[in-house]
């Protein structure tokens, strides 16, 4: 990474990454229709299409709701939760297994309740 500088850092959900990669694909099609994305970007786009569990338009709204609902939740944890979309307390315990804070059963139920309208069908 000689000559490159990190300008900004932000946690993205898989759905948000998918939007960025699709935009790059559209731009790449205009420049080089035969190979619009490099190999890594192509694999990343396939991964996002396969594993995204929330609609990209709703990801930021859901992340904000999670961070507003819980004082202890930061953007990193909210992003991780949206990527995994836990369905019960056990799933949430797995997500928080290596974190300093473990949500109570009531908090976990509220997280699942907040996520319910955002799940991709």
TrEMBL record:
Its EC number is 2.7.7.6. It comes from the Archaea. It is found in: Cytoplasm. Coiled coil: none annotated. It catalyses: RNA(n) + a ribonucleoside 5'-triphosphate = RNA(n+1) + diphosphate. Pfam families: RNA_pol_Rpb4. One of its GO terms (molecular function) is DNA-directed RNA polymerase activity. GO terms for cellular component: cytoplasm; DNA-directed RNA polymerase complex. Keywords: Cytoplasm, DNA-directed RNA polymerase, Nucleotidyltransferase, Transcription, Transferase. GO terms for biological process: DNA-templated transcription initiation. DNA-dependent RNA polymerase (RNAP) catalyzes the transcription of DNA into RNA using the four ribonucleoside triphosphates as substrates. This subunit is less well bound than the others. Part of the RNA polymerase complex. Forms a stalk with Rpo7 that extends from the main structure. Belongs to the eukaryotic RPB4 RNA polymerase subunit family. PANTHER family: DNA-DIRECTED RNA POLYMERASE SUBUNIT RPO4 (PTHR39646:SF1), RNA POLYMERASE RPB4 (PTHR39646). This is DNA-directed RNA polymerase subunit Rpo4. It comes from Palaeococcus pacificus DY20341.
